[in-house]
Amino acid sequence: MISPFEVIETIKMIQEEKLDIRTITMGISLLDCCDPNAGEACRKIYDKITGLASDLVRVGEDIEREYGIPIINKRISVTPIALVAGSSGEEDYVMFARAMERAADQVGVNFIGGFSALVHKGYTNGDRRLIHSIPEALSVTRKVCSSVNVATTKAGINMDAVREMGLIIKEAASLTADQGGLACAKLVVFANVPEDNPFMAGAFHGIGEPECVINVGVSGPGAIKSALEEVRGADFGVVAETIKKKAFKITRMGQLVAQEASRRLGVSFGIVDLSLAPTPSVGDSVAHILEEMGVEKCGAHGTTAALALLNDAVKKGGTMASSYVGGLSGAFIPVSEDAGMIDAVRCGALSLEKLEAMTCVCSVGLDMIAVPGDTSSDTISAIIADEIAIGVINNKTTAVRIIPSPGKEVGDLVEFGGLLGSGPVMKVSRYGSGEFIKRGGRIPAPIHSLSN
Amino acid sequence: MRAVITVIGKDRVGIIAGVSTILADCNVNILDLSQTIMQDVFTMIMLVDISRSTVTFSGLSESLDAKGRELGLSIRIQHEDIFSSMHRI
Known about the structure:
Low-confidence stretches of chain A: none
Number of helices of chain A: 15
CATH architecture of chain B: 2-Layer Sandwich
Number of helices of chain B: 3
Number of domains of chain A: 2
Shape of chain B: globular
CATH topology of the largest domain in chain A: Anaerobic Ribonucleotide-triphosphate Reductase Large Chain
Largest sheet of chain A: 11 strands, mixed
Structural class of chain B: alpha+beta
Distance between the termini of chain B: 20 Å
Number of strands of chain B: 4
Oligomer: heterodimer
CATH topology of chain B: Alpha-Beta Plaits
CATH architecture of the largest domain in chain A: Alpha-Beta Barrel
Helix content of chain B: 25-40%
Helix content of chain A: 40-55%
Low-confidence stretches of chain B: none
Radius of gyration of chain A: 21 Å
Strand order of the largest sheet of chain B: 2-3-1-4
CATH class of the largest domain in chain A: Alpha Beta
Largest interface: A-B, 20 and 26 residues
Order of helices and strands of chain B: EHEEHEH
Strand content of chain B: 35-45%
Shape of chain A: globular
Radius of gyration of chain B: 13 Å
CATH class of chain B: Alpha Beta
Largest sheet of chain B: 4 strands, antiparallel
Mean pLDDT of chain B: 91
């Protein structure tokens, strides 16, 4: 029999340390929903999603009850809509977003991702129309999430797309000004985007994926923090070992839920995403793990090294616990979704520049960052360009989810609600980047020998 | 199917009687049982076989939860696999 100590450890991780399964995400291919008639394509999309995902929420709730592990979200990701809608003559793709929203409402999921385009080397007509439709699509829907991949290590950076995304983000913010620019919280700009990521807002079902698949994202910053409290003052070998062991246990739970969900739904199991995903609630913060390691406040010198150790140890522990690992896999540092990050920004310990440095060693990138409403589109594009360059040169995924919150200034707090939390408005450089962004074209793919 | 029932809280008269009565009424067999005081908290762990249970998993879970509230304790039932997958390779 399992020992009482092990039983109690599991229960403590769930009850006190807020361990949960962040999401079960069903990936659905919509490639067979292409149609010259956009209305017909939307009908096919709705029918396919509601057909395949009809039991997703019920199965998620059954697993939650039987295993006693909270599953916070059930989500759907679909083929990038630019690929599906491109077959139609329709100019405005908002109707596709509405079809996704209707399907998501019908099956009861929390989010649906895939209002997306992959434009790292250039635009198709479908990509162009989709990107133009993003601001309205995200302001008239609640559950639809959008992403645009503007660069890869193999293709370089599409700077025309980087420039345009600055404008799109500004427009999305202004259309949802009464909600603090909420539409931007559902929009991510990527480099080297993964095709099997279960986390929003960047989830979509890539073209190398099967017809339908189950991907699971775990969470658990609280459990790691609590394990580190037991080894205060120990050297980094002990710290890394402690994180690895805990990450293993967290991921085993994700693996179990993923296998069980895929068996019950009759859908193949894709991957477990090892990410440490924080939430705004107390005791569920990645920043607090870094502070537990010994930096006084997240953002102080030493933070990048602490995060590098954390990210690597999570991957090492998690990889052994799951048969297939994928997605974004690493520690997330979304500012508005992490109580410790919010505190660190508010007390002046954490700046945009430090966050950028931190993204060099962890998963994702500049995530859920509110900036002043009067930040120009050029500056937003330049922030994107910097972050994307880090991903391209270092052969990793990076992303930007930034909210120029209309009417807000540095020091204000923007409320997004729910898992999205509340973001303190951060300072951006007062010097312009207009001439740089105006150039357009592509930054060539980097060379990967002579590494320095 | 096997499940683990955990009872955590302040020790008092009638805990085992209360839980085992519910299990007997539902035709759930107790396979193993251990109890201990951990950090001043009464902890009882039961391994049970629910394959012949006359009620659904959620029905059983709700009855145990109600008994827990009545006794001022936390009583939960979870599928055994969550513990074995986390702690066994």
